[in-house]
Amino acid sequence: MDKYSGYVLVVYVVTFALLLGYLAWMWLRLRRTSEEDRE
After folding, report:
1. Can you give the three-state secondary structure of the chain, one letter per residue?
2. How far apart are CA 26 and CA 23, in angstroms?
3. Distance CA 7, CA 10 (A)
């Protein structure tokens, strides 16, 4: 069980990091396009 709990933890961390990175990228892109629209 210990062998697999390490893999599960790594998968969770990588998935969470990818999700956060994707959300941050989308937020920055949306903010950039909205700023261009205002000009």
Report:
1. CHHHHHHHHHHHHHHHHHHHHHHHHHHHHHHHHHHHHHC
2. 5
3. 5
**Whole-structure pTM value:** 0.66
Q: In angstroms, rounded to a whole number, what is the distance separating the alpha carbons of residues 15 and 23?
A: 12
Residue 30 has pLDDT above 90, yes or no: yes
Q: How large is the C-alpha radius of gyration of the chain?
A: 17
Q: Which two tokens stand for residue 11?
A: 């998968």
For residue 17, give both structure tokens. 């990091």
